[in-house]
Amino acid sequence: MALVRDATAAPSMHNAQPWRFQYSRRNRVFHLRADLRGALPHTDPVLRALHIGCGAALMNLRVAVAHEGWQATTRVLPDPSDPMLLATVTLTGPLGDKDDPAALYPAVHTRHTSRYPFAEAEIPMSVRTALVDAADQEHVSLSFASGWHLQSVLDLAREGEARNLTDAGAAADLDRFTRRADDTRPATEGVPEYAFGPLRRIGKAPMRDFAGGKTVPGRPTADFETAPHLALLTTSRDRPVDWLRTGQAVERVLLRATLAGLSASFVTQALEWHDLRWPLRDPMSGMAYVQMVLRLGYGPPGTRTPRRPVQDVLDIEP
After folding, report:
1. pLDDT tens, 289-303?
2. pTM value?
3. Which of 9, 60, 214, 290 gives the lowest tally of CB atoms within 10 Å of its CB?
């Protein structure tokens, strides 16, 4: 159960937690399945974000298994006839000399999405290189937007956010996975009001308004970065296997960033609109499909958000 508790500390869009695990004691195999309770029918109609969230949970499971001293074999999409079976992780024996990714484990439960302002400070090249390498280990490319491309990404994120605030389908997805202070629903999923973060007064950091444009009594305002650091994760193709790789890369990057003292938030607004996603790429760099945009910087750590109880996401078989 502890391994799955570690896995479910992963981030997912709107904290929807679109995963379910099965563990076979006899075969020592974890099965990771898509849980459509965490689907966002309007915002994520093809389940791309669902796969990315499940990929992040898979990365955490791999980290936790290695931390416990086990070597494991991971297979993604192992059964073409069962597309909701996203991955299997088989415990094969004691961990060998190669302990990666066990070294990332201290960040599993300290990594939280931060919706607060970050300092106007550069990220050292050594840290940037480490994050690029982390993504590359999962066969995903990471690059930092700059110059005209950075401005273009900011403009597209702003356009996506404006559309979300006026689109009934996007509003319905957001309402389902946000929790106001007076909400009577169980607080086991979604983004609670205390984690919305402050409203932006000035600055260019592309922040989602989890209140959906509605007033939250007592919510503070703050000045955000004028030159945010945005990292784009891209793949050469755009298939479910690429989405799962992206999720693993995103979480490996976030764990590495946490260990380096960085905070992070997600910039997915433009990715949620088909006509805005393709222009996110930098055609001069050879980018193909942008799968995720991360905002990184030095600032307050994020706020812990709720998770479903392990018994609600894990089935144990003999």
Report:
1. 999 999 999 999 999
2. 0.97
3. 214
The mean pLDDT value for 174-193 works out to 92
- 96: its two tokens: 């060998």
Structure confidence by residue, pLDDT tens digits, 58-95: 999 999 999 999 999 999 999 999 999 999 999 998 88
Q: Where are the strands (E) in the chain, listed by range?
A: 19-24, 29-34, 70-76, 85-94, 141-144, 178-179, 191-192, 199-202, 221-223, 229-235, 263-266, 289-297, 314-317
Please return the burial class of 132, using the count of CB atoms within 10 Å of its CB with bins 0-12, 13-18 and 19+: middle
Distance of alpha carbon 177 from alpha carbon 210, whole angstroms: 9
Task: State phi, psi for 306 to the nearest 5 degrees.
Answer: -70, 160
How is 255-304 classified by DSSP, letter by letter?
HHHHHTT-EEEE--TGGGSHHHHGGGS-GGGT--EEEEEEEEESSPPPPP
